[in-house]
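Loading example: each entry is read as two labelled lines plus one structure line.
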Amino acid sequence: MAYSLIGKDFTPPDVRAKVTGKAKYAEDFRAEGMVFMKLLLSPMPHARVTNIDASDALKMDGVIDILTADDVPARPVPQVPVLTNHPTYVGDPILAIAAVDETTAADALEQVNVEYESLPFCIDPLQSLYPGGPDVYEEGNSATLGQPIKKIKWTARDFANVKEDELPRGEPYAEWEYGDVENGFKEASLVLEENFVTAGHSHHSMEPRSAFAYWQNGKCYMHVSSQSQSFSMPWLAQALDIETTDLVMIAEFCGGGFGSKGSPYSAMTLPAFMSRKIGRPVMMRISRAEEYYLGARRNGFQGWIKIGFRENGRVSAVDLYIVQQSGGTEGFPDFSSAAGAVSLVYTPEAMRSKGIPVLTNTPLTTAQRGPGQNQIACVVEPLLDKAARQLGIDRLAIREINAPDNSAKYSGKQLPVSSAYMREALVIGAEKFGWDEKKQRSGQQNGSKVIGLGVGQAYHSAGGSGFDGLVRIMPNGKLHIHSGVGNLGTYSYAATSRVVAEILGCPWENCVIERGDSRRSLPWNLGQFGSNTSFTMSRSNYAAAMDAKRKLQEIAATDFGGSADDYDVADVKVFSKSDRSKYLTFAEAAQKAIEAGGKFSGEEVPDDIFFTTKDAVAEIAGTGLIGVAKDNLDAPNHVPALATGFMMIELDTETGKYEILDYVGTADCGTVIHPMGLATQIRGGAVMGFGMAATERIVYDPQNGLPANVGFYQAKPPTYLDVPADLQVAWVDKPDPDNPLGIRGIGEPLMGCAAAALLCAISDALGGHYFNRTPIVPDMIINAAAGKSQSYKPLQVANQ
Amino acid sequence: MFDVPRRDPVTRRKFIKGVIASGSVASVGGLMIGGLGGCSDSTNTVAGTVERLITLNVNGRERRVDVLPYETLAMTLRYKLGLTGTKLGCDRGECGACTVLLDDTPTYSCSTLTHSVRGRALTTIEGLEGSEGELHPVQQAMIDELGPQCGFCTPGQVMSGVGLLRANPKPTQEEARVAMSGNLCRCGAYTNYLNAVMRAAEVS
């Protein structure tokens, strides 16, 4: 279908502010009387605070007040507390002090005498699963987001029953199965069984989660670093025990989140609590090191997988067990998403999944770009290569034969998908990369250097439904598109707003996007996470645009006679299809909508929209023609985002160093809505993937529970010099039937496919060596190249 | 060594001495600021926080400002001169978000003491636009190439790009890559930023 805006490049309205320094992030705001607060973080991995004596600190000049766990509402175990007397990791915030300047606040923290009772702790999830092993909470040791906490201990027999270095597999937290798994293995020509470890790693958002808050006339004003706007409001208001209408949330720019700022988080509320207590505006600057504690991270896996392959490479059965290192609070169900990803990406004929998220005394974990899906891509993709080698099949061919298409199913529930074109994504990637020609160079040697090639695939779900859209045509003829999704930096807030302009035939220059500040009357939208925005927001914006279009048609029919269907919209006008000289401009129609009142100007609203959308419409009712609707379009299927990556590296077997010579990333995300935006996502996802595969991991001292890397230079996100200057992109561009414009999301798998491609390329350069571990760091490469054993035990975590 | 939350007093003076002595930084607090004239009612009573009025040359203008002995340039710019376009991503010389030009040389303002730049010409991101609001070619190219994603590192990327082109107006792509390598971008927009710098070099 030909569109005038969808699929075309444009300059998003917030780019100029970013290149001129005018874009204001949370720490860039000031208010009269502003003071600073600093946090006291737990020096112990697990403890009870038995006494806090802040009397000396509070006597210091310039110190204003202290905030402790007793001053803030407790959150149910194992949710992330605001402040705690039961720190569950080194760096857990215990209390805060406000002072006239930051130095004074920091000096005052040193004068606070906190007494701790040290508690047993665990870094390795398996320690907690041992009979009698340490638990993070009395209530239990296993939990995940929104699910109950359980106490699960494996038996001594569970540990004794496995071979040395094999993952014990006791009682899981959750499990599912479809098909006849045992028969699938029986019919397989090749069965591979592997144990694996994937390391947790930090999000490394460039903007630490600094926050600034003050109260004025009963309202709380919060300047925060958040991926999501409207979605955050009810949670934040509830946390502060106020109405959403008394919360002003400003988050026009977010300096990176990658999942760690997707949902509202406890630390976001700290300055608001302190400000309410002391009656002054409070700035909380979060340092880079603090961000490594408070900022959450991707959780790590210890796992076991068994895959059966038929002679042609088709996956006949998968058996998967994942033990997840969840950190000190509830974490995110990566283990579950990982299993779902295996079911979709490799379409096994039968599969069993078991998993257990284990609470550990390490910083909180949360979703990070492809949470679970990307870890498992790092595990399974190199394993496919191993199978291809043993079966004598091309490594691209083994992926094509298992690739999901429109008949693919998701998870144990075997949900149908809206559409899936992984095979096409493989084909266009291979063509752009030149797979057939380049694969001849695999293993080619030049001194100590050797060429390696890799292909990677990844998946994430890519959309939701049931949220609200809100648009307004003003008496000056401008079309205002109200977007409550948030601004993570993908420009999808803008790209999906263009759906409204497309439907209403309105030039983009005539549009204004209202966003970034809850005072701008924003509708209820899903958060900007989970690769959902393009799908979800284009649907809700479509719903609102269709509502506005209908109202324009009805107003024209009232004016000129006939029925609404006799009219159409284009060029900032609503006009008679049979006589184009009969028209109202948007400006005229907006004026008539105000005069008509009722539903036309937002005085009446649909019953099914969310209460915050109703509040938003109430603010602007009577000011123009209001289009507002809940997305009630059909959403019968699971919506996937799929991606592939192709890579060639040159690896030096003497140093373990390698250079990425070539990378092509592809996307299967339905109709392409914003080509330049998609290209930046493919490239950016790839860069993050390179870090995941090769450099980034948490390191802990198991004796004392201390983290070893809380700085960029220690935790190693990729730099300019770690990636090739040119990263190539391609996409499938086939419309998805579950979206009115064919659009699906994409952000997350673009990282997993690149990570997997790099891991596969390293393995390939080493003659197909399977590492069972992510990341692959240089000493591992050198050991493998020299045929020496590795320095870690196969299931050891947080030590690399 | 491990970076852990410390309980011993870390004053700025001790901190700086420690850095000099050990050559390493262990910090949970980042660098801090005292005596924020414009923002707080501090009366400079905290030990060692005596401000001195100095003159800085910022974006072609003389700016008079009270500065603490240990104050970093990033903090002076952000909290005393209202120039918040300069970002703090790490506050310890790792990420480059705070990059400004010091006599045309890209410099980490988080790791530069304000007192040390008296008499030098300082340019921040706010100083690049022309008098009519026209963008610097690097800024324009960053828009054309859709360089920024989240945008937090962008001011630093722009300043490094401008500094490069002042020293080397026609860099090779490899020279540009090396020159920009002190600026981290977690969104991974390196290709786009690099393309922007090369485009700016072509037109300027």
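Chain A touches chain B through 88 residues (CB under 8 Å).
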